[in-house]
């Protein structure tokens, strides 16, 4: 059986990305990173539910505490407020410096260990928060670098099936594939009830609204 490493944050995008891998016939190796983000405990709980839903053959929960030491992001530095005033142009303060590059590097080492042929990541370029490490051109460059830096027989394809999708399309496709969206979390600020006003909540809510669907998670406002 062919194997795919799937980076799963606990959010809607990565849950759908992994479901697409499963639909394509891959055995799932689920990978999650705890990096000191504000909603770390909720995201981990969601990851475990998603991995169960996927019947993942292996799962990794990896702690990366150095992100808090680096700071420079509202997600990992609590002295920086998470913006709630609406989506803005440019790179927001919720961007975690080179996070996806580090995640991909670690996931690639796991893929090499297991002889996996694909690595799935749920990056979204067109309807994202403006993070530079979610761009298709960047992920393609990382694929080339990873294959240059691994064994000759390791030919890893980094798959990003959502990269050109809108959030409304992600909602629709997730429902079509039976992804349990009540097991996902997108809020940057809160772990009990989603705030509804951070960038990630706004994007998620807009996606459900445009898809004509009701979000199954609880919101504070």
Description:
The chain is α/β, with parallel strands linked by helices and 221 residues long. It has a single domain, classed as HUPs (Rossmann fold), CATH 3.40.50.620. 38% of the residues lie in helices and 11% in strands. It is built from 7 helices and 5 strands. Strands 3-2-1-4-5 form a 5-stranded parallel β-sheet, sandwiched between helices. The N and C termini lie far apart (45 Å). The model has no long low-confidence stretch (mean pLDDT 96).
Throw out a few tags for this protein.
single chain, 221 residues, alpha/beta, Rossmann fold, five-stranded parallel beta sheet, 7 helices
* Largest sheet, spatial ordering of strands: 3-2-1-4-5
Output mean pLDDT: 96
Q: Helix/strand-derived class? A: alpha/beta
- In DSSP terms (H or I, runs of 4 or more residues), the helix count works out at 7
Ranges where pLDDT stays below 50 over 5 or more residues in a row are none
The backbone outline, from C-alpha atoms, is: globular
Distance between the termini: 45 Å
User: Any idea how many domains?
Assistant: 1
* Share of residues in helices: 25-40%
> What proportion strand?
5-15%
Oligomer: single chain
* Beta strand count: 5
Using only C-alpha atoms, the radius of gyration works out to: 16 Å
Order of helices and strands: EHEHEHHEHEHH
CATH superfamily placement:
HUPs
- The CATH topology corresponds to Rossmann fold
Reported CATH architecture: 3-Layer(aba) Sandwich
Largest sheet at a glance? 5 strands, parallel
Give the CATH class: Alpha Beta
